[in-house]
Write a structure and sequence with these properties.
Strands 1-2-3 form a three-stranded antiparallel beta sheet, with no helix packed on it. The chain starts with a helix and ends with a helix. The protein contains 14 helices and three strands. The chain has two domains: about 80 residues, DNA polymerase, domain 1 (Orthogonal Bundle); about 170 residues, hpI Integrase, Chain A (Orthogonal Bundle), CATH 1.10.443.10. The chain is mainly α and about 290 residues long. Helix 1 packs antiparallel against helix 2. The longest helix is centred in the N-terminal third of the chain and has 20 residues. Strand 1 and strand 2 form a beta hairpin.
């Protein structure tokens, strides 16, 4: 079973060109499924049935997993099953009557502009670490890129003169502009701090850890959480929240949805539409406060 899973993961990564996050999500979800099937003495892909899959879904619901988590797992299972059918390892689709629970879409969590400004002011720019962190935070908010894209940026991807970033995600490539604040932070970091961080290591990666090695996702998560705490932001800060804030603040200042979709690298505009919920709430709040008969 694990061999089939590994083949599926390779297929999604190399053939379908799925993002790193998507591939990791599939792998984590399906490993838990395989462990469940092993406990049911189902060790061959050909023995996967509608009953065995339904028992797994029911088990997740009994454990109190959220509808969103259950829904994501069902999507992973369906993708895996379709792959097994395509490879001839299953004759019928045991997920045909499997439906994901209805998930209430909540507005994405964002920071206010004051909170963002407070966060970006936290790095100590008298140190090489602070200069690096300042550049990373400024670029993240300026472009709305994913954390996986941020830590993968190479020097040749950055055009400081024309202020744009080339961002590659699997087979997709997009060019994202950034503002003067991000440009200044990047210039100072590259000129004054990066060489000291990298040392004698030969690498084109723009942002490294203090040992000169490529920074990990977990490493940057710790950085942004630390600055969020020192900025007095009670919300548990994540890179995704800064990405959300980029999108919502752009929309609030007049950016159209299609432009935001292109900047964020969403394949479908419906994914981007979730950011309109924040805008609608703000309009309702303004109306409630301003209209004499509200």
């Amino acid at each position: 079973m694990k061999t089939a899973l590994q083949d599926f993961i390779t297929y999604m990564s190399e053939v379908k060109k799925a993002s790193i996050n998507t591939v990791m999500s599939y792998q984590n979800d399906l490993l838990k499924l395989i462990r469940h099937l092993d406990n049911q003495n189902i060790t061959e892909t050909g023995k996967i049935s509608e009953t065995s899959l339904n028992s797994y879904i029911l088990n997740m619901e009994r454990e109190g997993m959220s509808p969103a988590t259950v829904s994501r797992n069902i999507a992973s299972i369906k993708a895996f099953i379709l792959y097994l059918i395509k490879k001839g390892q299953l004759k019928e689709d045991p997920t045909e009557r499997m439906h994901a629970p209805k998930v209430e879409k909540k507005p994405p969590h964002t920071l206010s502009l004051d909170q963002v400004n407070g966060l970006l002011e936290q790095p100590d720019t008298d140190t090489v670490k602070g200069l690096r962190d300042k550049a990373m935070l400024e670029l993240l908010y300026a472009t709305g890129i994913r954390v996986s894209e941020l830590i993968s940026i190479k020097l040749e991807d950055i055009n400081l003169k024309n202020r744009f970033l080339r961002c590659c995600n699997s087979s997709k490539e997009r060019f994202i502009p950034f503002g003067n604040m991000a440009k200044q932070a990047l210039e100072i970091y590259i000129q004054k701090a990066r060489t000291e961080l990298v040392g004698k290591i030969n690498t084109s990666i723009c942002f490294t850890n203090l040992s000169g090695e490529p920074m990990s996702r977990q490493g940057f998560w710790k950085i942004i959480k630390s600055y969020g705490k020192t900025a007095g932001i009670e919300t548990d800060i994540t890179p995704q929240i800064l990405r959300n804030s980029f999108a919502v603040h752009m929309i609030e200042n007049g950016a159209d949805l299609q432009s935001i979709q292109e900047l964020l690298g969403h394949a479908d505009v419906t994914t981007t539409q979730v950011y309109l919920q924040n805008r609608s709430k703000k309009v309702r709040d303004v109306y409630a406060q301003a209209h004499p008969r509200a």
